[in-house]
Amino acid sequence: VRKSESLETKVKQHKVNKSSSKYAKAYESYKKKLAIASSIAVLQKSMKGASGMVFRSELKGMKRVLRRLKYTDGEDVVQIKGRAAAEIDCGDELVLTELIFEGVFNDLAPEVCAAVLSCFVFDEKTDENLRLPDELKRPIDVLKDKARRVATVQSESKLQVDVEEYVKKFKAGLAEMTLRWCQGVKFVDLMAKSEIFEGSVIRCIRRLEELVTQLAGVCKVIGNTELEKKFKEASKMMKRDIVFAASLYL
Predict the structure, then answer these.
(1) 247 φ, ψ to 5°?
(2) What's the per-residue H, E or C state across 32-48?
């Protein structure tokens, strides 16, 4: 009993009890805090569910794209185009695979193949009204047509793709320089009239050589020996001079 009375006395003398209005405000703030915490927990759970739904929707869309482009069959079994695309990681695998299987490179010289493929590694801003020589303009136009088709299929398959923006990412700003480089033009002469930074040109040509070498490997996988030889020849044309100097610091 004495302990109970002592406790009651301490409670009555506590500063919180003496300032009941402050206590009431503090209590209300605490209740609001609990309510907010509860709301946050509910929202987080809803977000997890929504993100899962988005992921499942995207996965279905991706499967539709692969089936429509013949990378897989109706049973989701990987076909030869799918095997080829799986070998590519240095550029847009869908567009590159379409170009190979549509025979776009078959009648092009090795140096022209390299110039066209530069559109997959060059991403700097250049003049949108760039004038290309006829030997490059036609195959690059074909490239953009294939890219538009791939993007359209993705969009129609309910994937979030802006078709025109997708096409614009394939930039031809380094194409003519790549052509001239493969034809043996010296680096100093190559850069004489260029507005592109030297380091950017070197990095892009090195990345391009990696892509071309990878595509040669893809052609080996699918049994296209003629195109494999052509890509290997394009690689040899690029690997020279200061661009591939072993001691070059990039």
Answers:
(1) -95, 5
(2) HHHHHHHHHHHHHHHHH
Q: Using only the alpha carbons of the chain, give its radius of gyration.
A: 31
The residue among 22, 34, 16, 68 whose CA lies nearest residue 60 is 68
Distance separating alpha carbons of residues 121 and 170, to the nearest angstrom: 8
Of 154, 155, 194, residue with least CA distance to 177: 194
**Sequence spans of domains, the chain:** 2-55, 84-244
43-96 pLDDT tens trace: 555 555 545 555 677 888 899 999 999 999 988 899 999 999 999 999 999 999
Count other C-beta atoms under 10 Å from residue 239's C-beta: 14
**Entry field: residues in the chain:** 250
The alpha carbon dihedral of 11, 16, 20, 24 has a sign of negative
- Tens of pLDDT, residues 139-195: 999 999 999 999 999 999 989 999 999 999 999 999 999 999 999 999 999 999 888
Asked if 117 and 91 count as a contact pair (C-beta separation under 8 A), the reply is yes
Nearest 5°: the CA angle 66, 164, 81 is 20
Task: Tell me the whole-structure pTM to 2 decimals.
Answer: 0.76
Q: Which fold has domain 84-244?
A: Sec63 N-terminal domain-like fold (1.10.3380)
**Residue 139 burial (CB < 10 Å; 0-12/13-18/19+)?**
buried
By C-alpha distance, which of 226, 244, 247, 248 is closest to 236? 244
